[in-house]
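As a representative case, the lines below give one protein's residues and fold tokens.
***
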Amino acid sequence: MNLANGYLFDRFGTMVTRLLGICLYTTGTLLVAFSSAAFSELLFPALSSIAVGGILLLLTNMQVGNLFAAHRSTIITLYNGAFDSSAAVFLVIKVLYEQGISLRSSFLVLSFCSIIHLVRTVLLMPRTHIPYPLPQHYTYGVNCGKANTYSVEQFDRIGEDRMTELQESSGRDNAPAAAEDGTEAQDSAKAASFRSCVLSWFFLWHLLWLSIMQLRHYLFIGTLNPMLNRLANNDPSLVSQYTNAFAITQLCGVLCAPWNGLIMDRHKGKPLAPGETEREADLRSSSLSLFLTSLQCLLFSVCASISLLPLQYLTFVLQVLNRSFLYGGNAAFISIAFPACHFGKLYGLVMSISAVVSLLQYPCFALIKGALGGDPFFVDIALTLLTLLVFIHPVYIFIHCRKLTRHREDNGQTEAANGSTPAESKL
């Protein structure tokens, strides 16, 4: 559903998308609340609704980063970290269940919490999108409706002011990002087409990068309980101890994810090189983030392949660190590398395709249970070697930025040899 949801967000905006997400999420929690052994089939539509509704809420929340130009990637990764850490809610439910609180009561409380989402949607979120860069005098919150009351002439003036600012800072004729409504349509027309974005090397290498690491994480989680039972010699108390430790580490995702955003935003506030665009500076910073995420996944995969029970504590730490970097970096990179008018569709497409790739975990499960007799060692080694491919993405981005820098320097030398300034040569 991610691609359809992304199109829904790009086409109809925040209000419609969030209302659908809230309905799906609340329906899912209510179905879990009223499920039982006799009606266990309710769990299938319930968990599907929770998953789709949660992604819709995340998708609309990430645009809040547009309100913080100097910390945009940090805010985006923070939301993804919170989304990742939300798995720890079920640890709380598990502990409450062990203390005598029924699952029905817990999920009814979760259902009533949807009122918070509804109030936030009406009072704090715009009906369409939060533009980037923000137009002058943009307001949000209870007055967010006033952000849509600019006249066409005001939109044109805002666009001209933004274009002048960008030309002065970068020395290039860059079309400005649009404001909401009127200029957003103009920006969509001028931006690269959705098809060209999908067929670009940026998107294809990013898809490979996400798909391989996500498959590695899913296979680890899917084999975690059998692995712990095997390493703990089927000691239930020891397995429960490590399972709880794994669940507790999931709480740290919201703490780890912003580190990635800080890495991607480290250049903000610093002057750009002559002729350098803000997008180029963002891409250059993202290459380090992508490389560190790839390195974390490699180390995590190596530790997960070693059959040593105490080492799994380190594996849990690396797993949550890499997972928080992975999904936060995924969303932040898409927001940097591609036009804002295609963000929802591209985010949905990359998540959908990577989810299809993740279905490869099931043949791996069958291989482990069958031919390998329950020992995932050889599958872990194969996935560790496969993980080496994810380094292609950051290297490609780094080389691309180096080429842009050399091209800019060559142009500067040519202009200096001709005795003209960049503005004069452009005229």
Observations:
- Residues 147-189, 423-427 have pLDDT under 50 and may be disordered.
- The radius of gyration is 24 Å.
- The chain has 20 helices and no strands.
- Residues 201-231 form the longest helix (31 residues).
